[in-house]
Amino acid sequence: MSLNTAHVNGGVLIHSGECILLFSEDVTLDFSGTDTQAMKGNKTGRIYLTTHRMIFTNNKQNDALLSFSFPFITLHDVELEQPVFGANYLKGKVRAQSNGNWIGEAKFKIVFKKGGCIDFAQAMLKAVSMASRNASGDVPPPYSAPTGPWYQAPPPAYAPNGYYGWIPPTNAFPDQPPPNSVFMTDMPPPYPGINPGYTGYAGPGAAGYANPGATPPGGAPAQPPPAGFAPPPMMNGGGPAGAAGFTPNGLSSSKLFQMLNR
Fold it and tell me: Which residue would you say has higher pLDDT here, 189 or 199?
């Protein structure tokens, strides 16, 4: 998990070959159990479920925390809470990644103020399970910052059609991110996701996506990497790094799995 590595120009920044499955506005994010000052206090913003991770972007642009990346491999003890009073929420623990702008482990709580928490949790559990099948037995190479530009992502990056017979519950989350708020780099995700073919290194461009070496889609001007943008390596020594440690068991053995399968 990394701090302030998934945003640019007030929008979200994703990897080449990564797709946004679900999007929800007006969620709140709280952390506990960490001394990182940027993670203190209640944050309100948007949540994205992608083929590889969750991403939170902050509505408050002068906050010390502008974005937060939750790769599936860094999550554990995730639970769904349904209080008698108040909105449903997800809670769990997340481990820091090397060079991810914070260290250690933290507890998180994500409240869905407009509903949809159960549908989101079901989709995340499915995505984690599918992604675990594509994990390599070898430790992926260290992650490095993109050397190429970022650019406006084409619509397939935030309007997926489904994966291997599974369709994300867009009926519960019908809204899509504004097209001018989704950006992409040419670097592939440094961790496995739903799509097969994870390699851990940059390729010429994922199928169905424009290669940033050519003219960016829609005439959007290519841009250099944003200031301070330093995506992290795979994992530090305290967490799982390969297929042996990357399974959905941290989710399926939790209350989340039990509640969703009653």
Answer: 189
